[in-house]
Specification:
Elements (H helix, E strand, L loop, with lengths): L14 H13 L8 E3 L8 E4 L3 E10 L6 H14 L4 E12 L5 H17 L3 E10 L6 E11 L14 E5 L4 H10 L1 H6 L4 H8 L10 H10 L4 E4 L4 H13 L2 E5 L7 H10 L12 E5 L4 H10 L4 E8 L5 E4 L5 E3 L13
Parallel strand pairs: 4-5, 9-12
Antiparallel strand pairs: 1-2, 2-3, 3-6, 4-6, 7-10, 7-11, 8-10, 9-11, 12-13
Helix pairs in contact: 2-3, 4-6
């Protein structure tokens, strides 16, 4: 083992290092299967396997930041990545790992019920999983695994974006982060002088605007030819934009004044000194579409109660990610794979 190696911080692996791992141990050496349409790749959040008349879409994702409503999170974050491919979520499994000395029957039942109720509401069948209690944990961890199906002509990939495509953002940013902070840091917020009404509204960001992008993904893909969709998880908006650009080998030009930073997240950003553009935001969907159809898409989403805006476009200048500020000054878009919320959790 090499000495004095730098230790990793909480959060996603850096793209450069992850790409090295994929090249060394997955892409170049792994057994090839001709039916794998999409495998391990930065920016692609689900695998796609050819099953003949349809594609099978497979996704796995853990919940590590939260304890409250953990089953709801576990189902929805996996659903989000599956529907971003245009697929219908079908079959769910979960691995539930619980802390020794802190787990009782009520906790186990609440997680099982949370997963069951969420899957039932989305028409998803629970097909298995694993549960155990172990040492070394101070809170539950749930790892979800979801399978879905998509008609071949309806498949959407993060790597499908084109130069000059418009980039549409739904709802606004910092949605999931707001719910997490309110639920995990409630007492701290009270000490800082926030009233119950504000805290409850932030908690309810879990449901309104909500961390699910199921409806907007379904509406958009059913009515338009989309070139990509991407859910904003760790690293928030800027990391999500970078992941599509990396997968599609493109550049970015983003108009900062078109990005909707919602009111409550704006307040939390100030209190906790977080960058809202780099904070986890499940519930926000990025869509790329030929700019000829972007306004039609926005109008359709708004008719269905989903606010959205064009926040910029992809460019042919691969690897060059630029922000256009209110004074029309261009600066480099700085993104990070390590989410801002890790500073406080």
């Amino acid at each position: 083992m090499r000495e004095n190696q730098k230790k990793f911080l909480v959060g996603k692996l850096k793209h450069k290092f992850l790409n090295k791992m994929l090249e060394n141990f997955v892409s170049s050496t792994h057994l090839k299967d001709s039916r794998v349409v999409v495998g391990s790749q930065i920016g692609e959040d689900a695998a796609v396997i050819d099953m003949g008349d349809k594609y099978l879409v497979a996704k796995t994702d853990p919940i590590t930041f939260v304890t409250d409503e953990i089953g709801y999170y576990a189902v929805n974050v996996n659903v989000n990545d599956v529907v971003c491919t245009g697929a219908t979520p079908k079959w769910f499994q979960s691995t539930i790992i619980l802390p020794a000395g802190q787990t009782d029957e009520d906790l186990i039942e609440s997680i099982f019920k949370n997963i069951h109720d969420t899957c039932k509401s989305l028409g998803i069948t629970i097909v298995g999983g694993h549960t155990e209690i172990t040492t070394g944990l101070n809170r539950p961890i749930v790892v979800g695994s979801l399978l879905g199906e998509v008609e071949k002509e309806k498949l959407v990939l993060s790597s499908g974006a084109n130069a000059n495509d418009s980039i549409v953002l739904t709802k606004g940013i910092f949605i999931e982060g707001t719910a997490i902070i309110a639920r995990e840091k409630e007492e701290f917020l009270k000490v800082k002088g926030f009233d119950n009404q504000f805290i409850e509204k932030c908690k309810n960001y879990l449901y309104k605007p909500g961390i699910s992008i199921y409806n907007e993904a379904l509406i958009s893909n059913d009515n338009f030819h989309l070139t990509s969709m991407h859910d904003l998880t760790e690293g928030g908006l800027f990391n999500g934009l970078a992941e599509i650009a990396i997968a599609s080998d493109l550049g970015l030009l983003i108009k900062k004044d078109q990005i909707n930073v919602l009111p409550e997240p704006s307040e939390l950003s100030k209190i906790f000194k977080l960058n809202p553009y780099s904070t986890i935001s499940s519930g926000s969907l990025l869509i790329s579409i030929n700019n000829e159809y972007s306004e039609d898409l926005i109008n359709l989403l708004r008719k269905n109660g989903i606010d959205s805006k064009v926040i910029g476009n992809f460019t042919s200048d691969s690897g060059r990610y630029l922000i256009l500020d209110e004074d029309n000054k261009k600066t480099k878009m700085k993104y990070t794979e390590i989410d801002e919320i890790t500073k406080i959790l």
